Amino acid sequence: MSDQPKSLFDKVWEKHIVEDESADRPAVLYIDLHLVHEVTSPQAFSAIEERGLKVRRPDRTFATLDHSTPTLPPNEKGERPYFTADAKNQVETLERNTKNHGVKLFGWGSENRGVVHVMGPEMGLTQPGMTVVCGDSHTSTHGAFGCIAFGIGTSEVGHVLATQCLAQRKPKTMRITVTGELQAGVSGKDVALTIINRLGFGGGTGYALEYCGPVIDALDMEGRMTVCNLSIEAGARCGMIAPDQKTIEWLRGRAYVPSDYEAAATEWLKLKSDDGAVFDDEITIDGSVIEPMATWGTTPDQGAPISQAVPVASNENEAKALKYMHFGGGDARGLAKVDVVFIGSCTNGRMADLRAAAEIMKGRHIAEGVRMLVVPGSEQVRAEAVAEGLDKIFTDAGAEWRLPGCSMCIAMNGDFVQPGQLAVSTSNRNFEGRQGPGARTVLASPATAAASAIAGHITDPRTYLQSA
Ligand SMILES: CC(C)[C@H](C(=O)O)[C@@H](O)C(=O)O
Ligand code: SF4
């Protein structure tokens, strides 16, 4: 058994089994890192308190504030402009819970606060070979470091708080190989939207994905995080990428990495699928033909290259999506006038994303009537962007530069798109009403979002990159 070739997923899974899975019982998995935010944790803390339990591993539990946090600064009295009493209550509850249970909170005032999936990696909390969970679907992001990382529900957040373990059935595995080389102007987001389009919404259900091939190797860590982030949008449990030298260099020097870094790095580099490892499913995508993508519908798989017209609906579901989006089948993508552009989120709110947008916006101005929000994914990203002068590029171009948080990705904090308005967004979900009641969302890369803000309609970023 032991010399059978194994996949990366199997290796990490097996190392964390506390109790094996049987026909009538899932496996019990040990969890290395538990990330917590204000939306899905209040009932979980209450549940353990009601039973008189403590947090089992406060040293392996880290919290941040992101979803309900206003992105505008406090007033002169120091009061934060919370959108609702609920939002304020969620934040205060997490402040209280983390204090009572000795859990580290990267809260207001911390220079490390950020969207949970931006914060974890940049603090070096996320490390290759770990099991990572959070009461949040986009926990798959951390898979970019060779982790088994997935979202859990609020009751499971309670289980992990109390036991540091989780009952889980082993998913099937699927390897996605992206061959060739990306064209200029094509990013990790375009790769992800292409993969989801190919798998279909729910096409990854029941699977752990492993991404590999020359295109994935060539992506920077930010691009890899974008790809893993979107795994859940194809229905997959998680997505992972084997660590390599880029992973090691990206994590080096971060706050929570092991003190004997070289020894850890040597172990991490062993984490990859063996030659001959068997997957339940395999797909190959030619990366050299991927183009800048934009969605036209109301699920992330309903996307197409910007160069192609909006497709004609081939079923009721597509017809409903086109109707909601006010798009006509056969329309050129560029016909749609853009009202709002949002750059940010755990998908595309990192330095590489802001740089890609700034490259297009430098010396240009957004089109009349467009409102643009640029929201760094974390305080660290904000500080680095300011040090590089990116904030100035954005504000000179007419965009608003905000404080870190989920912001318009989920529209819980007061940043939202008005009913009927069309938003080009670098986030990961374009569901009906996701960015506000009646809001119409087009998902795209930071470069595409920036180009669309400048042009005032959905635009292939290569238009500007070539004329730069
Ligand atoms: C609020 C939270 C539970 C939710 C999630 O789990 O994904 C959010 O982050 C999202 O992106 O929709
Ligand atoms: S940025 Fe968006 S997708 Fe990411 S955790 Fe926040 S709400 Fe969820």
Question: How is this structure best described in words?
Answer:
Strand 9 (172-179), helix 6 and strand 10 (207-212) form a beta-alpha-beta unit. The chain starts with 7 loop residues before the first helix and ends with a helix. The radius of gyration is 21 Å and the shape is globular. The chain is built from 17 helices and 19 strands. With 468 residues, the chain is of the alpha/beta class. It binds 3-isopropylmalic acid and iron/sulfur cluster. 3-isopropylmalic acid is lined by residues 39-40, 67, 136-138, 151, 410.
Q: Mean of the pLDDT scores?
A: 97
User: Could you tell me the strand content as a percent range?
Assistant: 15-25%
Quaternary: single chain
- Protein structure class: alpha/beta
The number of helices is 17
Strand order of the largest sheet: 5-4-3-6-7
- Highest CATH level, the class of the largest domain: Alpha Beta
CATH superfamily of the largest domain: Aconitase, domain 3
Largest sheet: 5 strands, parallel
User: Over the alpha carbons, how many angstroms does the gyration radius reach?
Assistant: 21 Å
Q: What would the CATH topology of the largest domain be? A: Aconitase, domain 3
Strand and helix layout:
Elements lengths: L7 H8 L1 E3 L7 E4 L2 E4 L5 H9 L10 E4 L20 H17 L2 E3 L9 H7 L8 E4 L13 E4 L2 H10 L1 E4 L3 E8 L8 H12 L7 E6 L1 H5 L2 H9 L8 E3 L4 H7 L9 H8 L12 E6 L6 E3 L7 E3 L10 H10 L14 E4 L1 H4 L2 H11 L9 E4 L4 H10 L1 H7 L3 E2 L20 E4 L14 E4 L2 H10 L6 H6 L1
Helix pairs in contact: 2-5, 6-8, 13-16
The site of iron/sulfur cluster has 12 residues, from α12.
